[in-house]
Amino acid sequence: MNRFIIHILFIAAVLGCGLLIGINNIPGEWYQSLAKPSFNPPNWIFAPAWSVLYVIIGFVGARTFLHHRQSAAMRFWVAQMIFNFAWSPLFFGLHEIALALIVILSLLISIAGFIATSRKQDYLSALLFLPYLAWVAFATLLNTSIFLMN
Prior knowledge:
Radius of gyration: 16 Å
CATH class: Mainly Alpha
Mean pLDDT: 96
CATH topology: Ferritin
Helix content: over 70%
């Protein structure tokens, strides 16, 4: 299959799944009623930030699939997708703050694992995952703060 098509498919799948999960797990009254830290960003920032990150995640996934399909990096990439897509339904849908915290910590570890295992074989992909790592580290801090405050 054409490399360009694989990139488009990965980006579309990641972005599409992310948007679908986001639409079905919108922060509602329950989330609004929670005590949140002073550094909690406004709700409108999450959709554009995640949309950009999902494009990057899809692009990196395609690169890894094309060049290192059987690698530890690919396994970490798949793991981070599972944790990523599990978090919103747990937190916003089921209101499971503690379980969501465990999942986001697992997500953070799998992103770091991807960066560590891919940096020698695909430095660009490792670099592209750094903003994702930073965003999820911040989201982990938010999740932890909300857990402790509620």
